Structure to design on (269 residues):
């Protein structure tokens, strides 16, 4: 199982490098099902792996001039605030036993996994939709202030999702950059990786005060994801993403559905 877990982590790096979004959402299930971590620990450790992998993957986009630092600067403060609120305020408020009855017991780790699986289903839906490189026509009619306000709300939501589930939320960031800030798709992918890296690394560093990670294993997993992310990012422009994203979306949908069913079964007393 551990060997398979390392192989699965390579897939995380590949998808991050090729797609700029979606791959990080596999990290938590890998840590939970292959390495036996609790959902709470997995969401924390996942942020370190995803952050380091995103940093490596974005190098190629930076060299190609496909990162919009100005838009990232607008997005990051609100998303970091969301990460902080999720990790330091909301998660500690969730009791170990969320709900209990004669027929159902829902624990904190199960709630996190169910929430995470729901995010996976939403990510799958996003990846299966056809994307356009054109700026939406409605953007032209929006005032700059209105679009900026919407982007701040979206950024805060991304931060909350990142803090809760340990994934970068790239499937949320990219549509926000395209639809609200008018960014071309190619630049949105690279900029998304920068935002992912900042959010997840900050969240991981903030979690170190509460959880001490198994550094040797975590470094090994991170190294695998970083190498595969860098290598695959070299081929991002040559891969037909219109076909790859929907296929990967179906895979994420299957994994998310499995998690929901599995967690509901184990919710019995």
């Amino acid at each position: 199982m551990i060997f398979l877990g390392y192989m699965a982590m390579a897939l995380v790096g590949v998808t991050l490098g090729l797609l700029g979004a979606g791959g990080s959402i596999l990290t938590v299930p890998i840590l939970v099902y292959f390495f036996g971590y609790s959902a709470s620990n997995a969401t924390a450790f996942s942020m370190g792996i995803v952050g380091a992998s995103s940093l490596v993957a974005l190098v190629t986009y930076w060299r190609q001039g496909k990162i919009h630092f100005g838009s990232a600067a607008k997005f990051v403060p609100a998303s970091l605030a969301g990460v902080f609120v999720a990790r330091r305020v909301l998660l500690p408020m969730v009791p170990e036993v969320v709900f209990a009855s004669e027929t159902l017991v829902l624990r904190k780790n199960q709630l996190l996994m169910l929430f995470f699986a729901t995010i996976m289903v939403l990510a799958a839906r996003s990846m299966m939709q056809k994307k356009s490189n054109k700026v939406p026509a409605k953007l032209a009619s929006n005032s700059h202030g209105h679009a900026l306000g919407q982007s701040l709300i979206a950024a805060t939501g991304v931060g909350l999702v990142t803090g809760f589930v340990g994934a970068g939320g790239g499937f949320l960031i990219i549509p926000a950059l395209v639809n609200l800030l008018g960014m071309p798709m190619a630049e949105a992918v690279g900029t998304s990786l920068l935002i992912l890296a900042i959010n997840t690394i900050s969240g991981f560093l903030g979690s170190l005060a509460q959880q001490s990670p198994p550094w040797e294993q975590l470094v090994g997993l991170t190294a695998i994801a970083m190498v595969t992310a860098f290598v695959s990012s070299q081929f991002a422009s040559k891969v037909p993403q219109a076909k790859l994203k929907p296929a990967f979306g179906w895979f994420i949908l299957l994994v998310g559905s499995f998690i929901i069913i599995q967690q509901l079964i184990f919710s019995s007393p």
Remarks:
- The chain has one domain: 2-265.
- The beta strands are 97-100, 105-107.
